[in-house]
Design brief:
mainly alpha
Length: 97
């Protein structure tokens, strides 16, 4: 894989992380609106989902936010690494001439 392939892969991870984070924020906003419209119904939904063995929409939103942040950080770290390796390679070629 060349430099462009590695760069596009890491930037794609950042983009995917941004999309996942936006989805988490949208879900969290909808959950908040629904909670303020009818708190008793949302708390009942949370309790029933907890008893049923699954998590509620608030937990899903937090997982999406955490997953998106991890993707963004991994993509940024990969981008910095790819650029650093490329710059190191260019300077090593200049030093050989």
């Amino acid at each position: 894989m060349g430099i462009l392939g590695a760069l596009f892969t890491t930037l794609g991870m950042v983009t995917l992380g941004g999309v996942i984070t936006c989805l988490g924020l949208l879900l969290l906003g909808e959950y908040r609106q629904a909670f303020f419209r009818d708190p008793r119904r949302m708390m009942t939904l949370e309790v029933l989902m907890r008893v049923g063995g699954s998590s509620g929409p608030g937990y899903l939103a937090m997982l999406l936010l955490l997953g998106g942040a991890i993707f963004i950080l991994m993509g940024l770290a990969g981008t910095i690494t790819v650029i650093g390796v490329y710059v190191w390679h260019v300077f090593s070629l200049i030093g050989k001439q």
